[in-house]
Amino acid sequence: MMSLIGVNNAKGYTLVEIMASVLILGVGLVFVANSYAVALRGAGSAANIIEAMKLGQEKIESLEVSTLKGALPGYHLQGTVKSSFKEYNYELIISQITGFGPLAEHLVEACLGLKWQEQNSTKNASFPVFLPKQKE
Predict the structure, then answer these.
(1) C-alpha 133: how far from its chain's center?
(2) For the segment 67-81, what is each residue's pLDDT rounded down to a tens digit?
(3) How far is C-alpha 2 from the geometric centre of its chain's CA atoms?
(4) What's the burial of 48, exposed, middle or buried (CB within 10 Å: 0-12/13-18/19+)?
(5) How many secondary structure helices (H) and strands (E) does the chain include?
(6) Which CATH class is domain 15-132?
(7) Poorest-confidence range of 31-35, 83-87, 90-94, 125-129?
(8) How many angstroms separate the CA atoms of 61 and 87, rounded?
(9) Percentage of residues in the chain having pLDDT higher than 90
């Protein structure tokens, strides 16, 4: 039987190849985990914005029916609206419309602003509504 010197018939991977593949896999998993964390923060922020929109719409509709019909420019109201997991501060300002020609004589603008705290920053949303002006 003849033996070939210098020929290696061993099958498998070397330690260096395994270490390189583990390093590549680890770097990839770090990027995936980071992307997942960013997506979770974005989803939480989107949920807060949707909740603020719902609360703002409900608040402006209830104020429009009860208080705002015929309100005069200069009306100012502040308060807090609580949802199931967050507090939203609101500010309502009724102001005179300018630059709309004949419409400005018959309408006022009611603007409801919502503010809330989210991840070390303040977020806000605005709801402008045009209402008939009260006769003075």
Answers:
(1) 34
(2) 566 666 777 888 888
(3) 76
(4) buried
(5) 1, 4
(6) mainly beta
(7) 83-87
(8) 19
(9) 17
* Selection from 93, 81, 102 nearest residue 127 by Cα: 93
Tokens 């997506």 sit on residue: 39
The token pair that represents 3 in the structure block:
């033996």
- Long-range Cβ contact pairs of 107-111 (< 8 A, separation 24 or more): 107/131, 107/132, 107/133, 108/71, 108/72, 108/73, 108/132, 108/133, 110/60, 110/63, 110/64, 110/68, 110/71
**Residues 11-43 pLDDT 10s:** 888 999 999 999 999 999 999 999 998 898 888
pTM, rounded to two decimals: 0.61
- 65, 67, 111 from 105: Cα distances, Å: 22, 20, 18
